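Q: Convert this sequence to structure tokens.
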Amino acid sequence: MKSQMTPSSSNNRATTALGAVEGGYEPIASSRDRKASLSKTLRSARSGALFGFLSIAAIITFVPFAYMLSSSFKRRDEIYSVPVTWIPSEIEPLNYVRLFEEIPFAREYLNSAVIAVIVVASVLFFSSLAGFAFAKYQFRFKNQMFLFVLATMMIPIQVQVVPLYLIVNSLGWLNTYQGVFVPQAMSAFGIFLMRQMMLSVPDEILDAARVDGASEVGLFRHVAIPMTRAGLLVLALLTALTSWNDYLWPVIVLRSEDMLTVPLGLAALINTYRVEYGMVLAGSTLAMLPVVALFIVFNRHFVAGLTSGAVKF
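A:
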């Protein structure tokens, strides 16, 4: 005898099953929601902590520059005052006026600019050529030669000073521009950086240009250089900064006052008999302006260039 199912019993069973399903899955869903909320909270906390740490680091880095700029407008007695005053009681450009009147600071500025421009141009030229050759051509002992170039980066400049001085002296280049920039005309780091950037240029594009009749020089000028412009900009900024702040080699080569660079001129203000901190701070502020201006203008390209060459070794 077949059992008959009434509508009421069917509804009760459906309700029971639905309640069981809801009762079974509701704790799992809420557990997932709680885990997602906790993970989101932890990510927000980590981001906040990282932002706070970077903000503190940025403030600590900025404080000396702010004090330098502020103190460059102070009088001598106010610079030495205790406690330290962050804002000058009266803004006076006296230190800047004395800087140009008592020492040939304009000439030193020009010397630094000329040397930096020549060094940057030569480093970009030779580094891009060598990087292109190491990245896109096959020749005997290529890897060994590249490793040798990298090995030269481990030789301290202090070890190179004596032989470089003897060479420059034998050529009669003491107290000249070429005596300063020729030893810096090529950079092992620049060759390494441009080689990494050239590796990112697809070989297919070079082959297509060769099929179209482009020469090897044309490949370098019209294909490789435009595609590695960000890396060239990074190398130019780093080289300019290094040359602009260079002290050790110029102080050995340069002798006369009209050939001194900015670091040498500012260092001459601090000696045994006098310490002109006001003029040093004013000169440091002016010396910082070109570097800051270059970084502000090319900041986006600078960051892009640092990451675009991240390819295999």
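The CA atoms of residues 68 and 281 lie 6 Å apart.
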